[in-house]
Amino acid sequence: MTIAEAQAEAIKFHALLRSLPDRLRGIEDFGLNVEALKDANVAGQAVSAIDAVTWQVAVP
Amino acid sequence: MSKLVVTSIGPASSVQDGGRPGSQRYGLVPSGAMDRLSLAAANTLVGNELLAAAVEIGPFGASFTARGGAVRVGLAGASRNADIGGRPVAFDSSATLAEGETLNLGFARGGSFSYLAIEHGIEGEPMFGSLAVNARAGLGSPYPRPLQSGDELKTQAASGIAERRIELPASNDAPIRIVFGPQDDEFADESKRLLTDSEWKISATSDRMGYRLEGPAIKHLDGHNIVSDGTVNGSIQVPGNGQPIVLMPDRGTSGGYPKIATVITADFGRFAQISAAGRSASRR
User: Fold this and answer.
1) Among B53, B84, B95, B168, which one has the highest count of C-beta atoms within 10 angstroms of its own C-beta?
2) pLDDT at B224
3) Which residues of B touch A9 (CB under 8 A)?
């Protein structure tokens, strides 16, 4: 990657750091993130086999 | 005064913060957290400054007990089994230990370093503006060395506010991105392709000073000694054996091996989290 591209990525990274306070949520306010579950391999194939739509939390 | 007492802890665990930026001009290694995003996330959970001092916990387990009052903590970085007195605690969230309660943390999963931030911060005497530990240089506070059982981290009583969790971007297994240079002219194009097109294993001898990469040997065009010059986090230097070393926060301030490339800032923490024997690929 070029230096200019690396600098652009660094700027995005620091923007992510500054955005962290906006990413706080209440501990009980928990929408299930199926992609993160897959990444963590918590339930392995069992999670992969389930239609992600059935896991979505209904938005009032 | 509340404090968190280290009841058990493995190697490679120490107090780290944003380090000592700008200190390299004095020959002082910057140190600081291996994974700044995780440090900042842990601190955010308990309302601290993003790069305030926290406990950087290496791959092995650890436990901490609250004494003198309740202590509120934020956990982020490599996830682990965690509980307070048998009560499960999630990573990327905050939790409060009542007086006498113990937080137990298991082995790191999916990374090497976890961060435990303490609400109101860790009390210590900044050395060159930072509490970050560099054991080789004898720098850091409250202990200028890795943490040991019995160490006490003093703080203020927990605020009692509601616990939080933090939503972080999904983990990313993409190749680690690099920029060639500053001495890539010491290598043939074939050697540079070897760096980007090979899969590399992190050696078990890696530490906070440098991660040794194991893979095909990278040949120099004209010897492996250069006039020493400055290093940065992520400098990839190639010594005589052709096995690259990626320089980490406790690196030397200058190096005399040619640096073929540099890990970009945005990917440095992700690279630092690759565990020993874990595999890494780079991308130009």
Assistant:
1) B53
2) 87
3) 177, 264-267
- Does A26 contact B at CB distance below 8 Å? yes
Q: Which helix (H) or strand (E) holds B94?
A: strand B93-97
Neighbour count for residue A25 (Cβ, 10 Å): 14
Cβ <8 Å between A13 and B37: yes
Q: Average pLDDT in the B127-155 region?
A: 96
Residues in chain B within 8 Å Cβ distance of A13: 37, 265-266
What is the pLDDT at residue A27? 82
Q: What is the CATH number of domain B176-283?
A: 2.40.100.10
Mutual orientation of helices B265-272 and B36-45 as an angle, nearest 10°?
Answer: 80
Domain positions in chain B: 2-155, 176-283
Domain boundaries, chain A: 3-55
Which ipTM was obtained for this model? 0.90
Q: Residue B200, SS3?
A: strand
Cβ atoms A20, B50 nearer than 8 A = yes
- Using a CB-CB cut-off of 8 Å, the residues of chain A touching B179 are 1-3, 6
CB–CB contacts below 8 A, A to B? 69
Nearest to A23 among B168, B283, B284 (CB): B168
Encode pLDDT of B240-276 as tens digits.
999 999 999 999 999 899 999 999 999 999 999 998 6
Nearest CA in chain B to A6: B264
Q: Mean of the per-residue pLDDT values for chain B? A: 94
Six-digit token string for B194: 């070897």
Pairwise pLDDT comparison (B32 vs A43), residue with the higher score: B32
Element housing B254 (H / E): strand B254-255
